[in-house]
Write a structure and sequence with these properties.
alpha+beta; Nuclear Transport Factor 2, Chain: A
Length: 172
């Protein structure tokens, strides 16, 4: 299985202002073959689970793409794996919110002005690519959306949206 997160060593090796890294050809082909966008996957799962998404990640596994979407519903987090081509839900798991997140609180998620789907759309417009990873985080009491966008050339860029200010910025 290939996960599209930059390892810490790779992130530290990036020079200031150059927040791009390469995505492999095979992973890019799997992403390009996905019929379901990451925003579509989030919307479908939010509707089905009756909650708000706090994390979504695109994965390539044996040449097939899937999304892993975590949705908060009450004090629970439901994790759903959804096929990126067919939209079929492949697996569902449930855990207590407190077991999965230590800083983020359910009430902060429900009170956010921006949804994860809206944050994804903003990041894709600004970067001109597709979001492959997005998560909600609490930074000193402020909700932020941290996203990884891959461009058509396979390069990835890290972006952060501050829910309070609406500012979207590239991470250094």
């Amino acid at each position: 299985m290939v996960r599209f997160r930059l390892p810490l060593a790779a992130a530290l090796a990036l020079t200031a202002g150059a927040a791009w890294a390469d995505l492999g050809r095979e992973e890019l082909q799997v992403l390009e073959g996905a019929k379901l966008t990451i925003a579509d996957a989030v919307s479908r799962i939010e509707t089905a689970a009756g909650g708000k998404a706090v994390d979504v990640e695109f994965e390539a596994n044996d040449g097939r793409g899937q999304y892993e979407v975590k949705v908060v519903s009450s004090d629970d987090v439901h994790t759903h794996k959804i096929d990126a081509t067919t939209g079929e839900v492949l697996d569902t798991d449930k855990a207590l919110f407190s077991e999965m997140f230590n800083r983020l609180k359910p009430e902060a998620v429900s009170g956010a002005r921006t949804s994860l789907t809206q944050a994804i759309a903003m990041a894709e417009r600004q970067a001109g690519g597709r979001v492959i990873d997005a998560e909600v985080d609490d930074e000193d009491g402020r909700i932020q959306y941290e996203m990884t966008v891959v461009g058509p050339d396979g390069n990835t860029q890290e972006l952060t949206l501050d829910d309070g200010t609406g500012q979207l910025a590239a991470d250094d």
